[in-house]
Design a protein that fits this description.
Rossmann fold; Lipase_secreted; alpha/beta; about 15% strand; 9-stranded mixed β-sheet; single chain; AB_hydrolase_fold; 2 domains
Length: about 425
């Protein structure tokens, strides 16, 4: 059962604005659109050479990358102050065009909120294949870890603005480093692409793109997380119809996302306690989300459920008496605000092209949530002509990403023509 839960979460770990120009420089300065502009004078803290822990992946990247770096940079954090964050930066071996290499941001899926869960520490895995294709096309690739991953503090999991500023500020810092310190020819054009949590992040970056004060061109969002209250509620309903062997990993996945949300709030101004969200059985386990990665959190949560359900004196083959989430926890003011606004993309008009991919067989981000997202985007002013929504009955949460590399690169090429 533990292996089954682990497999479920590893597969789901893929999960869970306006346009400006010029170079960025005081984070508190706000212009007409209400978005603070990046006016950080010295955004680059330090730059180190990066080697992926997967030697096979690293060899592939070596063939197409002129440099691979881990950059620590300044960003505007979730509490409104400048904090350090980290990002990977890759440069291509191709000759830069006259107007410079464009920048493509890759936004990763759910890994956890602890430092050791940063993709730069875990390894790039399948992401390396897409990065390789983008480098081969002649793009600089910037791949942020997000606020709090590989840097101080917990990662504010699925906080839209935090993810967005992790992206915009990484683009500004990377461009300044490549142009100013290395003398590379880098364009002011940039786009973003992300999967699951990363799809959520790039929709946030689209909303807050004017912070970078560069030439933002559009985004590709793959199975983007959204409408979290719907996903959690629908997941509960589905789990209630499943046999125990399938019910436990489904509930463990849902509780992992909830635990990561609570863990990501710890140490910040907007926060709740674990006991406010979880009943005792789960509240005792959930804090490991601050120190362990998503798959391990799911193992602990699922393992505890399994132990209870199979105990002849406790569960007697059922989870009916097991303490998971508190009744009505989603109505807690902090959680309700998070679910309805702080985590929700599509509430503001987007002015550039958005490509959205969604698998109808996806059980992590169900297609119904993305349908609601697209409807909301249109209702909030994003032109229907700027949204290209592609679905497929066969794609699940993983294959919607792994089967469409060529399409993604083609979409990015079209944005950067």
């Amino acid at each position: 059962m533990k292996k089954h839960v682990l497999t479920m979460l590893i597969s789901s770990a893929f999960l869970l604005t306006a346009c400006g120009s010029g170079d960025g420089g005081d984070s508190t300065y706000v212009v007409d659109d209400g978005i603070p502009k990046n006016n950080i004078v010295n955004p680059v803290v330090r730059v180190e050479s990066y080697t992926d822990i997967d030697s096979d992946v690293n060899t592939d990247l070596d063939a197409v990358s002129a440099s691979k770096s881990l950059m620590t940079y300044k960003m505007l954090g979730v509490d409104g102050t400048e904090v350090d964050a980290t990002t990977l930066v890759f440069t291509p071996k191709t000759v830069a065009p006259a107007n410079g290499w464009p920048i493509v941001v890759w936004a990763h899926g759910t890994t956890g909120v602890a430092d050791k869960c940063a993709p730069s520490a875990l390894g790039l895995g399948q992401t390396a294949e897409l990065i390789e294709e983008l480098l081969d096309e002649g793009y600089v690739v910037v791949a942020p870890n997000y606020e709090g991953l590989g840097s101080a503090g917990n990662h504010p999991f699925l906080n839209l603005k935090s993810e967005a500023f992790s992206i915009t500020d990484a683009v500004v810092a990377a461009r300044k480093y490549l142009k100013g310190q290395l003398g590379k020819n880098v364009s002011d054009q940039w786009v973003s692409i992300g999967h699951s949590q990363g799809g959520h992040a790039v929709l946030g970056a689209a909303q807050y793109a004017s912070r970078a004060q560069l030439n933002y061109k559009g985004t590709v969002a793959i199975a983007p997380a959204s409408n979290l209250a719907f996903i959690l509620t629908a997941g509960e309903v589905k789990a209630s119809t499943l046999p125990l062997a399938q019910q436990i990993p489904t509930l463990a996945q849902l509780d992992t996302y909830t635990a990561l949300i609570v863990a990501g709030m710890q140490g910040y101004k907007s926060s709740v306690t674990y006991n406010e969200v979880f009943k005792n059985d789960t509240a005792l386990i959930a804090p490991i989300a601050e120190t362990e990665c998503a798959s391990d959190v799911a193992d602990y949560l699922g393992g505890s459920m399994y132990a209870y359900a199979t105990d002849p004196q406790k569960g007697k083959g059922s989870l009916s008496g097991y303490g998971r989430t508190q009744s009505g926890f989603m109505t807690l003011p902090v959680i309700n605000t998070f679910l309805q606004t702080s985590s929700q993309p599509g509430l503001a008009k987007l002015n550039q092209k958005v490509f959205i991919y969604q698998g109808l067989a996806d059980t992590t981000v169900p297609y119904q949530a993305t349908d609601i997202l697209v409807q909301s985007m249109k209702a909030n002013g994003t032109s229907a002509s700027d949204i290209q929504y592609t679905t497929n009955a066969i794609w699940d949460h993983g294959t919607v990403y792994t089967q469409n590399y060529a399409s993604f690169v083609g979409n990015i090429d079209s944005l950067l023509k």
